[in-house]
Amino acid sequence: MRIALDRLSRSFDGREVLHSMDFDDEVSTLAIIGPSGGGKSTLLRIIGGLLVPSGGELSIDGRLVLFNERDLVPYRAGLGYVFQAGGLFHHLNARENIALPLRVVHGLSAEAATARAEELLARLGLAAEGDKKPVQLSGGMQQRIAIARAIAPGPQLLLLDEPTSALDPEYTSEVLDLIGALKAEGMRFIVVTHELGFARHACEKLAFLYEGSIWEYGPSEQLFQNPQTPELERFLSKLLEWRV
Asked: In total, how many domains does the chain have?
């Protein structure tokens, strides 16, 4: 999938968070890293059609994304989105959290939606948890269900916004292993993450966002081994300082 940004910008209350950003490349598995406040989640939400840019353009596979609700509805339907805290419906059980969007957004019958939900729960080792509501599940289980909901309709691209930020290390490994398995199956994704090991080894490309701009971009291993700016070198060393 080719993603192109042409002078893309976004401001909040007069403060520019993304600064005239340019980008054009084929995206298979991309990690977006950088310090807090650098614009990572803002960029992901614009790509996901959840936030309207203040200026510039976004194109997917050569087609301009039109940021009006009529055009955004089908655009969003082709993407999967996983939020930091999962975004599950707390009044629904795990099975229904997966099945409901399939019925309402994608037009599946109740039987087909439930069958797809059951298939994914079994695949992710959660077959026994289908009747439980989110409050009855661990954080790792909740995120796996959120990912199941996002991939259930077969999206062209999966967008993950710090999916492990609220998880203990054990549950973090569960979720990262699942994303790695999806990569092995050919799923394309963009992930905003502070999990540098995952960014380095599981993602083909890496984008370093700093002060609202892409300061470095390229093959993940190459950028980790040889950062070209003091900002990326400092960011990596700071995050890796206390890692075993």
From this structure: 1
